[in-house]
Each structure stands twice: as C-alpha cells, then as structure tokens.
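Notes to self after the call with IL:
- keep both proteins in one doc
- input above output, always
- annotate only the second one for now

Protein 1:
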Amino acid sequence: MIDSTSHFHQLIAGGRTLASTLFAEGSTARLGQVIEREFDGCNLFAAARLIGIRKFRKGFWTTPEGIAMGYNIPVRQNGLDQEWLPKPDAQHPRHFGYYRVQPVASEAEHPVGNALLLDYGQGQNPWWNFTWVLRDYLRQPFADDPDVLLGAAYVKIGALRFFSNFFALRWIGATTRKGSR
C-alpha cells in the first residue's frame, strides 16, 4: 500500500537536494491528478518558516468554460506535525493567488519541460498582489504515488525566469471552490 504521508514528509525532510534529484527524475504531473482536488503544501526553503509561508494549501478546479484554474489558501503555521488549518477558518477559507493550469506548451519558453504549469500571470490577480510574477511547475516525484507532487517555483520578470524554491504537495480531498473566480 502506498503511504503518501510518508512520501510527503520524505520530501520535506530531504530539502532542496532531494527535491532537485526527484524533480529531475520525476514524471509529468497530469491535469487529472489535480483538477477538483486540494493539496496540503510545504515550501522547502528554510526562510519559509521565518516569513510565515512554510505551510499552505493549493486547490484546483475547472471553470464553466472548461479552463483549468487553481488557488492558494493560507494556513496556520502551527508546525509540520500539526493539522493544516485554513485561515481564517475551515468554513471560510481565504482563496488568493489564482493561476491557470496547463501542460507546458513549449520547452523553449520554459525552464522546465514535461510538467504542469501553474501560471499566476493568467490568474487575474490584482497588479499589487506579487503572485502574478510566479510560475510553478509540477511533477510527480514517486512513480507509485500520484497523490504526492513536487513543485518548482520560479519568478518571471519580463522574459527572465529565476528559480525560487521547491515545494511539496499532498492530496487531501475535494476542492473547496467551484465555478468562476
């Protein structure tokens, strides 16, 4: 039996070195693995804890027009051994940092091929919200576990893209958002 929680914590404990290896060796994440689902997430860089973004949640849905989209939910930073608790609360999670989800169309245009692209530049985020510069790439690091994904976050400024950090995702259930943004 697959132990997704163990794989998730293995990514967290392994940090950037393990994430880099598994990201390079992993397989392409598929739209079907994420659409209509939510994932607990963990940023794999040391400063994330200090600035309050170590833990987070990502969700994915399809618009009535059939466009795959996603969002982030802030969660309490109560330690990795504690439950991921949405802010402000589980009944009213705050959705922000929207992105369009699509397979990488052209490896010439992206630093990562064979991945799902989470394009915050197409998420209709307000100009003052920094998330519009983010581009995340998702891959499946463990061949036997489609419920754990590994992301590589990049910052896009004009034609330039800079690597930011890796993050781990673990499937937790159905999306909490439906329809249009």
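Protein 2 (the one to annotate):
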Amino acid sequence: MPVVSGSDAAAKLTGLKVNTQFSDGDATKLRNLFQSGISRKVAGIITAVPDASLDKQLCAARRAGIPVIVWNINGATGQGASCIMAYVGQDFRTTGAVIAQRMVDDGKIKQGDRVFCPVEYPNFSYATERAAGVNQVLKPLGTKCDMLGVGVDEAKSRSTEAQYLLGHRNTKAVIGLGGPSQSVVLKALKQARLKDVAVGGFDLSPAMLAVANAKPPPLRLMVGDLRAVPVRDGWADLVLLLNAGLNYLLEPAEVVTALRQLGRAAAPGGAVVVEPLSARFAHEGWEPGRHVDRDGLRLDASYEVHGHLVTERLRWTLGGVEEAETYRQRLYSDAELESLVEAAGLRLVERRPMWPAIPAEPARGRVLWVARAPGP
C-alpha cells in the first residue's frame, strides 16, 4: 500500500515511530482505534475520515493536545472539521466535475444519456462529493449520475454492477466513483454483454489501463511497482527509467530493490538506463518550466531542498479548476548511486550527459546512467 510505504520511509528519515492500524471500513472499529490513540497519548494521529461519525473523537484529540492530520477522505463536519490540523487529499467535488467534463468534451456523454456511477460506500463523503461534482456537469445535459453501492468484495461488486447494466441496457457511460468499484467495470460490462459504453474513473487501476490498451496505437500497459516489476526475467533488451522516477524511493534499500528488478527484467547483458534527479535541477531548475501559462494551463512549481530531501510543490489551474500537489524525492549523490547500482548487481558502464546531444536548455545537468545486467 503506497501510503504505508511512504509513512514508513518518512518515519526512518525523521526518526519517528509509526504504528499503522486498519479499521477495514468498520466505523466502530475506527472510533475505537482513535480513542485508543488518545488514551495512549500518542504524539499525533493521521487518519482518513469517511464521514461525520468521527467528529467527537477529532475534537477529543485536539483537547488532549494531539494534532490530527486527515488524508485521502475528509468527511468531518461542523466542529469536527475545525478540530483537524490539515487535510491532505483531493477536492472530491472538483475531481468529479473534472472527469465528467472530460467525458462530455470527448463526446462520451451526450444530452439525456444514462450514466451509471457504482461506488463502494455511497454514504461516505468521497462518494457523495464526487457524485455531486459529476452531476454538476451532467445537469445541463438533462441527466444525472445514477449512484449505486456495490461494496468492496470483487465478485459481489462485479455481479451487482452487471445486474444493474442488465436492467439498464441503455447505459451510455460508467463513472466508477472509487478504486474497487472502478476496477471491475470492464468485467461487469462483459458479463452484461454491453459494448460501446464509455468508462471513466478516478483511481489508477488495471481496468483503466485496459481501456487505454484498447485504443490505438497498440501498446502494452501495466500497473506495477518499481520494487516488484510485473514482467518475466529477461523480458526486455532495453529497460528505461527516466524523469527521476527512482528518486521517489526515499530509502536506499528500496532503490537497490528497484534496480535489481530492472536488471532482472533485462535480457542477459541488456541495458538498464536510469535518469536520476539532477542536483542542478533540484537546486536551480529551469525557470521557464517552473512557470507555464499556455493553452489554458497555468502551472507554478517550487522546490525546497533540506539535506537530501527535495519537496516539490505544484499549483496548477486548468479549465477553471485549481489544484495544489506536493511530492517528495531523495537526492542521491553520485557516490551513493554508484554503490546502489553495484549493490543491485548491475555494472555501470557509462554516465552520458543529455546536453549537448539534446540541444535544449532543460537537458543541462541531466545525466543518463547506463548499466548492464549480468550476462554475456
């Protein structure tokens, strides 16, 4: 789970002790876990708040001097909403409007079309807010999002969605309001024997990649993790990892694991090419790329470097929608990277500057590290 990996990595960087527990969607269990944290006088609490049922506990934590940061879902209301320190996550109403508008603009949803919106828990705030955003766009077209709770069990979700589709064969579009409900949409459509139904969604999932794979040009796309690359041994003659993707792994051990996976995926003696984060880019950047205003997109980016931790803050506006995002990377020195490449069993053969072979200012300071996998 990415958020758990991220919190564990942050704990190692900061020296904090993190105790991760799960409520498994059970509101009572979540409240009990929260109260247990207050009783143990923990230093802080990070949690998702699916609905208003946690308002009392949020304020109890504040009275006890325990800061609470909410991530992913913020269903706190009234006084409860004022008792949290910060919320890290998306504006669900805005994202609902964005995905619906995209489907309308692409001609996937037209006047009077039936739109099906399956979701795991229809009473949770992420579901109601995303549905509200979708309906905001659909209302002028004389239609609305038909929301249906399908739960999180894959087989039951697929069956429930298929039953809806069988009873509403005039469905023109499906917008899954959550990850699990979205991930079974294509299977449900197949089970209902429906074709030419547009599919949209919010969370990265194999189903969404299947949609992309069905479009020209023919590509093979997969959901994967650098630490567990989903291809067989020796699958590729050339393996590329560009745009500082490696630096989002904050622990050296994770980098070694990722490099081993890339080497495993390469044919014996095959090339593994990695572009690590450039120190010049992190400290100086390319100013025109940090401030963009064209074709309706306005983007402002800033970077903060504290030791080896780089914090990237983005604020962008597109189509009247404004978002703020924050990412973190670790800046590894050349000496560190060399030792990590060696520890992964790869042989570094070249460090090739992108400038002047690519005669463009953004290429300055960026270097491709070329390594070879074990073999002839």
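Annotation: Residues 92-213 form a domain with the Rossmann fold fold (CATH 3.40.50.2300). The chain has a mean pLDDT of 85.
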